[in-house]
Amino acid sequence: MLMRRHLPWLLPLAALLIWLGVQVWQWHAGPLVPGYRIERRNLTQDVVATGRVVTPSRISIASEITGLVIGRYVHEGDRVQAGQALLELRSDASAAGIAQAEAGLAQLQQQTRPQAAANLQAARASADMAERDATRLRALQTRNLVSRQSAEQAEANARVAQAQLRAAAAAWQAVRPGGSVERQLQANLALARAQDVRSVLRAGRAGQILTRSVEVGDTVVPGQVLFTEARAGATEILVPVDETNLDLLRLGQPARCATDAYPDRVFTATLSFIAPSVDAARGTVDLRLTVPRPPQWLRQDMTTSVDIRTGAAEAALVIPNDALRARQGTRAQVLLWRDGRARTVSVQLGLRGPFLSQVRSGLRVGDVVLDDNAIAPGARVRVRLRPLPLQAPGLHAQSTSNTVAMHP
Question: Is the pLDDT of residue 396 over 80?
Fold first, then answer.
């Protein structure tokens, strides 16, 4: 009867004593903090960035002469071969230049050269005759058969005839076959023909026409850009990445790529160039990735996401970055939960990313590390385990460049 009479008071008292016991135990055991159990996972470390499709170079194609467009033979997107006709101009100046040069050559061959040959022959005959007359009169004058004046006049005539012969010989040398006049006329003809050849605008290299700014009926002038051509060659992706990723990047690293236009069509590329300088304004380094087998739908200047594989480790110990303290390069500290207390441990890191890092030394499988910066080393704590974070973003998970992703 006594127990029944005191039972309503005993039950609340027992509950209070239990609660007080729990509170005392919790106070003694320490606060409840989040933590992670160290595990092994296969990891790959990637630099994720965004860039654009580029070609080795772009060529601006312009006319060298003034002319009226009478034919346009290519459109944007057309692939062309070296020497293929792109545009034809009508150039009256080049046609007139060819006609003038050909007429000059015809006149040289049919008139000027025969006349020069005849003049040379006549001058040679006159010089021979004048020399003979001067010789004969000198002989007669020595015998006083002719006057001295006549002999001197004959000698003067001989000198004039020799001068005329030299002039005729020089004129012949200029117009003879292969002479300076013929070479000049041939050069004029070649120049006129070259100018006429330039009336047909041709592709200097194989490639693809990106832009055109001319139509039939337009009048073009020298230097006016009429077409822009992407030179044929290896397709590349130009990617600026944050300079902090430089220590992760090496030539030859593979990459997976996808464009914003076709996000489900993934293709491969290889890191082939790392710029030797840093853009000081942006703090970035330009990379070029070569696409060995570019798909047919890949176009110039397409926005492209790239996932550059910078490292991989099988069955690696991993730790969340939230649990790292005093991180400096590949060294860091963690709070290890052991015997109910938080203890400071130094660790050596390997692959690293925004969520997980590889632990090379300092921890073992099954160790529990704490994620609470307010806990002091040596403090008693209790642990509420969390699952390790996962990150497996697609190529388009990062719309901005320059992040390092780690995938389990």
Answer: no
Q: What is the largest CA-CA distance in the chain?
A: 195
> Do 119 and 171 touch, CB atoms closer than 8 A?
yes
User: Each residue of 158-212: pLDDT tens digit?
Assistant: 788 788 888 878 877 877 887 777 788 787 777 777 777 778 888 888 888 888 9
Residue 271's nearest CA partner among 311, 300, 236 is 236
Distance (Å) of CA 170 to CA 164, 179, 186, 229: 10, 10, 20, 53
Condensed to tens digits (0 to 9), the pLDDT of residues 2-50 reads: 445 555 655 565 555 555 544 444 444 468 888 899 888 888 888 889 9
Q: What angle do CA 363, 366, 370 make, to 5 degrees?
A: 70
Using N-to-C axis directions, what is the helix angle for 148-175 and 113-142, rounded to 10°?
Answer: 160
CA atoms within 13 A on the CB side of 375: 28
* Whole-number pLDDT of residue 322: 85
Contacts of 64 (CB under 8 A, 6+ apart): 198, 222
Q: How many CB atoms lie within 10 A of CB 264?
A: 8
Q: Give mean pLDDT, residues 134-152.
A: 78
Rounded to an integer, the average pLDDT of 84-110 is: 78
The three-class DSSP label of residue 390 is coil
Residue 18 burial by CB count (10 A; 0-12/13-18/19+): exposed, middle or buried?
exposed
List Cβ neighbours of 236 (8 Å cut-off, separation of 6 or more).
Answer: 53, 54, 55, 56, 272, 288, 289, 290, 291
DSSP string covering 34-46:
EEEE-EEEEEEEE
Q: In this structure, which amino acid lies at residue 341?
A: R
Which residues on neighbouring strands pair with residue 359, listed in sequence order?
317, 349
Tell me the residue type at 8.
Answer: P
Identify any residues that bridge with 307 across adjacent strands, giving them in sequence order.
48, 256
